[in-house]
Automatic annotation (TrEMBL), chain A:
Recorded GO CC terms: plasma membrane
GO biological process: transmembrane transport
A Pfam family hit: BPD_transp_1
Name assigned to this protein: Sugar ABC transporter permease
Membrane-spanning intervals of the chain: 29-59, 97-116, 128-148, 177-201, 222-247, 282-303
Top-level taxon: Bacteria
Compartment(s): Cell membrane
Matching PANTHER family: ABC TRANSPORTER PERMEASE PROTEIN, INNER MEMBRANE ABC TRANSPORTER PERMEASE PROTEIN YCJO
Keyword Acyltransferase listed: no
From TrEMBL, chain B:
Gene3D superfamilies: MetI-like
Record family assignment: Belongs to the binding-protein-dependent transport system permease family.
Keywords tagged on the record: Cell membrane, Membrane, Transmembrane, Transmembrane helix, Transport
Keyword Translocase: no
Cross-referenced SUPFAM superfamilies: MetI-like
Record's GO cellular component terms: plasma membrane
Topology of this chain in the membrane: Multi-pass membrane protein
Name assigned to this protein: Carbohydrate ABC transporter permease
One BP annotation, GO: transmembrane transport
Bilayer-spanning residue ranges: 7-29, 77-99, 108-132, 144-162, 183-205, 246-263
Length: 313, 277
């Protein structure tokens, strides 16, 4: 909360119209509330109310098919979470996804940005090509890859056989499915981050490289001592947004594997969906929602804090 | 030496490009083949290079014969357009009020907006479903659209944008007899067109690509947006031909490709502002 206020005061001070002591004009008040009301009503109904409901229902045994018989059961739902093996697995799956996809996707994106940051003929074509998977929706990507990864007649396995590698089960094997989803997610998402890295690379002062050339630095040294440090703010921004996004993984496993095989690809968000929406067990799903939401908020605050320290260092 | 280096660069860049393009080429090409040809070509170069004698529109005709996919594409276009038009209006009005007027509780409303920005919407999607359900709006278009009309991030972006809007322009509008609302729609909105396009495109894409919320909020097949309908068709995967599926994927991809070609500049700019995906 203190951080909020601090950040808020900074925001407020940028308001040129703001003066504490001046009294309000009636016309301004009427206009302002007229302009604000639709947004405020929608925000209260569809953002605040859900949060309040998640908090209250999390402490009950509310079951959607018996709405009149919900009882306050205290911390029972939260106790159950600790021993819920599928929930723990879905949490570990989500962590696994985040830990692998963030570095993979960002290093792919940086590599691509370095390739297309050349003043050379035809570079526009490469830029468009690398960006092209980002145009597809996640559902289209998931379906396309599921078809291509078909264990018996899919494109990828046929190509693998052509180069002498035996057919792989990919999505139908508990040990491979999550890694397959990680690879496909990185493939589809890295185009966006490439564009953002590229904007950062374009801002690097060319004279830095010239100076390094004079000092006899090689390409790797230039990359390590000039490119990386200048890209740091952008890198941290991308780490934060990609990490938070990755925690909310659901579409790919929902379409490609349905969470299987053997719950090897079920994620937290999907677990909440299954329990609350499919099985109508609102009380328990609300409790999980609550913990997950707090977890995400804490994670983003921690990463932002690291970001701030990095920046001042 | 320089030529060798250049050649190496082009080879490397092209190999990387193939890795991104081949799946898309295969998708489009396969949509113009019948299944037998797809599987006959699958381990040859013809999987990726058109052999014109084998191509036909059969799979499109057959797909549309048993499933009218354009109905769902149309639904999605309408939903996304409504979300953009209504959403931009409501959110920018709120942003404008917070940037320009002096009124009581302004600080508190601003704190409120900023606080809501850090709550991940997807994480609270289940309680959102409960609220819409309580309102009796599940399986209705308003129930599907209303929750995502409001976007606190966009309110904040608009506010930041309007903070630097020249006050003289608005004053001159008022002297000419425009009301506050008139000034907004006739002066502020048209002169912030770039901002509106950028935010609008991102809103459109988010709405078009949305999956989880429509799955929960709309189960009526006639109302389904395209992403949900695609998955429903695909879920029946043992009864659908690969060529039909690829035709469906291609149809869904075309409107977005057109959008990208027209608005490329704004999409990249906008992604940097909000860091989506």
């Amino acid at each position: 909360m203190k951080k909020f206020i601090k950040r808020f005061v900074k925001v407020r001070n940028t308001t040129e119209h703001f003066r504490q002591s001046e009294h309000y004009k009636k016309r301004d008040i009427v206009s302002a509330f007229g302009f604000l009301t639709p947004a405020l009503i929608l925000a209260i109904l569809f953002i605040v109310l859900p949060i309040i409901l998640a908090i209250t229902y999390g402490f009950t045994d509310y079951y959607l098919l018996k709405p009149n018989d919900k009882e306050f059961i205290g911390l029972e739902n939260f106790k159950r979470m600790i021993t819920d093996e599928v929930l723990i697995q879905s949490f570990m799956n989500t962590i696994k996804f985040v830990v692998f996809v963030v570095p993979l996707q960002l290093s792919m994106a940086l590599g691509l940005a370095l390739i297309v940051n050349k003043k050379i003929k035809g570079v526009g074509f490469f830029r468009t090509a690398y960006f092209s998977p980002a145009v597809l929706s996640l559902v289209v990507i998931s379906i396309l890859w599921t078809v291509m990864l078909n264990p018996t007649s899919g494109l990828i396995n046929e190509l693998l056989e052509n180069v002498g590698i035996s057919k792989q089960p990919f999505l139908s094997s508990a040990s491979q499915a999550m890694y397959t989803i990680i690879a496909i997610s990185a493939w589809s998402g890295c185009g966006y981050q490439m564009m953002i890295f590229l904007a950062g690379l374009k801002n690097i002062d060319g004279s830095l490289y010239e100076a390094a050339d004079i000092d006899g630095a090689n390409a790797f040294q230039k990359f390590l001592f000039i490119t990386i440090p200048t890209l740091k703010p952008i890198l941290m921004f991308l780490v934060i947004t990609t990490t938070i996004q990755a925690f909310k993984l659901i579409v790919q496993p929902m379409v490609m594997t349905g969470g299987g095989p053997d719950n090897s690809t079920i994620t937290i968000l999907q677990y909440i969906y299954e329990y609350g929406f499919r099985h109508r067990n609102i009380g328990y799903a609300s409790a999980v929602t609550l913990v997950f939401t707090i977890f995400l908020v804490v994670i983003s605050i921690i990463i932002k804090k690291l970001f701030r320290e990095e920046k001042t260092a | 030496m320089k030529i060798v280096k250049k050649t190496l660069f082009y080879i490397l860049a092209s190999l990387v490009a193939l890795q991104f393009l081949l799946p898309l080429i295969w998708m489009i090409l396969s949509s113009f083949k019948i299944d037998e040809v797809i599987y006959k070509d699958i381990d040859t170069i013809f999987a990726f290079v058109p052999k014109f004698s084998d191509l036909s529109f059969d799979s499109y005709v057959e797909l549309l014969g048993f499933y009218n996919i354009f109905k769902n594409v149309g639904n999605s276009l309408i939903y996304a357009s409504v979300t953009v038009v209504v959403g931009l209006t409501i959110n920018s009005l709120a942003g404008y009020a917070l940037a320009r007027f002096k009124f009581p509780f302004k600080d508190w409303i601003l704190i409120f907006i900023i606080a809501l920005m850090i709550v991940p919407i997807e994480a609270t999607i289940l309680p959102l479903f409960l609220v819409v359900n309580e309102m009796g709006l599940i399986n209705t278009i308003p129930g599907y659209l209303l929750p995502f009309i409001i976007n606190v991030m966009n309110i904040f972006l608009f506010r930041q944008h309007f903070l630097s809007f020249p006050g003289e322009l608005i004053e001159s509008g008022k002297i000419d007899g425009l009301s506050e609302v008139g000034c907004f729609f006739r002066i502020v909105m048209p002169s912030s067109l770039n901002m509106y396009i950028t935010v609008g495109i991102l809103t459109f894409l988010a709405s078009w690509n949305d999956f989880l919320w429509p799955v929960m909020a709309l189960s009526n097949a006639d109302l389904m947006p395209i992403q949900v309908a695609l998955n429903a068709v695909f879920a029946d995967k043992y009864n659908i031909f690969t060529s039909h599926m690829m035709a469906a994927l291609t149809i869904v991809t075309i409107p977005i490709v057109i959008l990208y070609i027209i608005f490329q500049k704004y999409i990249v700019e906008g992604s940097m502002q909000s860091g989506i995906k």
